[in-house]
Design brief:
With about 220 residues, this protein is of the alpha/beta class. It has seven helices and six strands. Strands 1-2-3-4-5-6 form a six-stranded parallel β-sheet. Helix 3 links the parallel strand 1 and strand 2. Helix 3 packs parallel to helix 4.
């Protein structure tokens, strides 16, 4: 990314101290790699294509985003491993999702058969393959199936739909983000994520490979 004199900036804008950003990102990558995990930063933190590419260059496994138009813009910029971490519904959005999936690896979040069947039909029509993760509600009460068993029950009918490819499981413990730091928060996060871990074990016990496990 080219640097600019501060007097040239048109505000409001993102101002990045590159030395600190490099150090912080390297530290995050070192921590995750030591645990055998990958980092998929969320686009909403900066909403900058340049910064998303900068993160990929420094080892990020891909980019997370919230909206289909963001995924489309990222793909057009050459970033081709994207998780759209919000659920969506309705034929127009399923059609758009199927069209976008023709441009690279995009992973969508599913938690019901109705949207999955609609997305499958649109993917067949578009000639694309839509990767998906099954979302498990870890306590946010916003989206996702209610239990590991429900995730397994959903996998059956979804795996039979054409042009959909199972990519893994997802759960977001976002209801704990604002909780004060300390042992109580750490314990709450551990308890919340255990539900996701239980789902992974249940899938493995039933002979189902889980390529991706995504959480906050």
């Amino acid at each position: 990314m080219p640097g600019r004199a501060i007097e040239e900036l048109i505000t409001p804008c993102v101002v990045l101290e590159l030395d600190k950003a490099e150090a912080n990102f390297a530290k995050a990558m070192d921590i995750l790699r030591a645990q055998g995990k990958a980092l998929r930063p969320h686009f909403k933190v900066h909403r900058s294509i340049d910064l998303a590419a900068w993160q990929i260059e420094r080892g990020a496994a891909g980019i997370t985003c919230a909206r289909l138009d963001e995924a489309e813009a990222l793909l057009q910029a050459g970033i081709d491993d994207i998780l759209v971490a919000n659920t969506f519904a309705g034929q127009p959005k399923c059609r758009k999702a199927a069209e976008i999936a023709g441009g690279g690896r995009v992973i969508y979040v599913l938690d019901n058969t109705k949207t999955a069947a609609m997305l499958s039909r649109e993917a067949v029509f578009a000639g694309s393959v839509c990767n998906y993760v099954i979302d498990i509600d870890l306590g946010m009460d916003r989206a996702g199936v209610v239990s590991p068993e429900a995730a397994l029950d959903l996998y059956g009918p979804l795996s039979a739909l054409p042009n959909l490819e199972f990519a893994g499981l997802m759960g977001y413990e976002g209801h704990l983000v604002a909780k004060a730091e300390g042992p109580e928060k750490a314990a709450a996060i551990k308890t919340s994520l255990e539900k996701l871990s239980a789902a992974v074990r249940l899938f493995h016990d039933n002979g189902i490979n889980v390529p991706l496990v995504s959480s906050g």
